[in-house]
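queue> pop job 88
queue> type: inverse folding (structure -> sequence)
queue> payload:
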């Protein structure tokens, strides 16, 4: 793309609160682009998800997939609905299909606490967390998705798959992320989180990790079993920096990370591959609050900032990186000034959260790095 081209963004709002949180995210992205200047967006919205499957017999229509493939990045709300299932009873989850289709091996799940949030842990150090979980997102135990076997109603098997082809780029990506964080004052540690003491698949995961560690001597390679990591995420989460782990372990640990931030509505994510990337909040469609304008759009907004980080790095567009910083600064400012979504016992609904973030962004005193 040339320096003047707009970023072409495929927008897949999905189901439930996916729709509700997408609108604020786009408004904040537009406002950040307007304030920083030098770049713009072309949003291309497509319907996909469980409701689309119910109404049209397909969850991820070809037009949505084609646009996603052509776009510079994909923004996704949330997909799935409890009562709508495939004939075999499995969930409608095109967001998982996209990970496999585009080889999005690195699920980046930052755990960064916002100012003035209710304390989740008693220790004061837990008010300032800043670490990242990288969840491998195309294989591991999820390789068995749709392939599990139940024999004679007596035995069930799902098989975990760990490959060198995925692990090498995954670990390289993770070491590079630790390097980028170190350059900004991070700890410079990458921990391999596994269960290498029990399973051959995880011993192999760790072996490949060790091989790649040799290429990044400036980063300290660390090791932890997943059970000990769950303990440390509660006992001393402030000591963590970057963690890389298998798909299923990452699925579980990243929800624990969301809990440390205040809830699912605070947890952004990026699913990154060699060419494509999807940016979506960690949460699902939240049927229990859908349609009530109570969803917290913070995770979606912060996922939009992660999209700008990725686009800025990939295309060498400094203004996109600045806009990402601006969005995070505006979110921080809004919370520091007392924003309190329903999710944490406040009275700020989806639109109020968006309004406060937009107001914070328009403040002249908000610094753009
Ligand atoms: P999935 O299986 O797709 O992850 P889920 O039903 O297990 O979906 P979520 O949809 O993420 O999980 O919801 C978990 C809980 O978190 C629900 O009580 C939901 O209301 C709450 N929640 C999720 N996202 C938000 C949000 N953005 N704002 C407020 N509450 C949220």
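queue> result:
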């Amino acid at each position: 793309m040339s320096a003047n081209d707009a970023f072409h963004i495929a927008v897949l709002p999905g189901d439930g609160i996916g729709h509700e949180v997408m609108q604020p995210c786009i408004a904040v992205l537009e406002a950040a682009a307007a304030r920083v200047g030098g770049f713009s967006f072309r949003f291309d919205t497509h319907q996909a998800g469980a409701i689309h499957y119910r109404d049209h017999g397909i969850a991820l229509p070809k037009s949505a997939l084609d646009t996603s493939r052509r776009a510079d990045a994909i923004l996704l709300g949330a997909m799935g609905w409890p009562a709508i299932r495939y004939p075999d009873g499995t969930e409608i989850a095109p967001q998982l299909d996209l990970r496999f289709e585009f080889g999005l091996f690195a699920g980046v799940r930052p755990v960064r606490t916002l100012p003035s949030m209710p304390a989740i842990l008693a220790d004061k150090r837990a008010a300032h967390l800043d670490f990242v979980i990288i969840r491998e997102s195309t294989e591991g135990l999820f390789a068995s998705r749709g392939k599990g076997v139940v024999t004679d109603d007596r035995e069930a098997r799902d098989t975990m798959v760990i490959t060198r082809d995925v692990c090498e780029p995954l670990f390289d990506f993770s070491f590079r992320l630790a390097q980028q964080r170190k350059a900004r004052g991070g700890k410079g540690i990458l921990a391999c989180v596994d269960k290498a003491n029990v399973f051959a698949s995880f011993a192999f995961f760790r072996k490949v990790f060790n091989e790649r560690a040799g290429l990044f001597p400036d980063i300290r390679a660390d090791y932890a079993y997943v059970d000990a990591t769950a303990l440390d995420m509660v006992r001393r989460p402030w000591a963590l920096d970057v963690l890389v782990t298998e798909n299923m372990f990452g699925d579980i640990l990243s929800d624990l990370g969301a809990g440390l931030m205040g809830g699912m509505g605070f947890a952004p994510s990026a699913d990154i591959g060699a060419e494509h990337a999807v940016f979506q909040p960690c949460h699902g469609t939240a049927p229990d609050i859908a349609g009530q304008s109570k969803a917290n759009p913070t995770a979606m907004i912060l996922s939009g900032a992660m999209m700008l980080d990725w686009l800025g790095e990939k295309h060498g567009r400094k203004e996109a990186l600045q806009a990402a910083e601006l969005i995070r600064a505006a979110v921080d400012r809004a919370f520091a000034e007392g924003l309190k979504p329903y999710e944490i016992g406040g009275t700020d609904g989806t639109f109020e959260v968006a309004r406060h973030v937009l107001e914070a962004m328009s403040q002249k005193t908000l610094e753009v790095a």
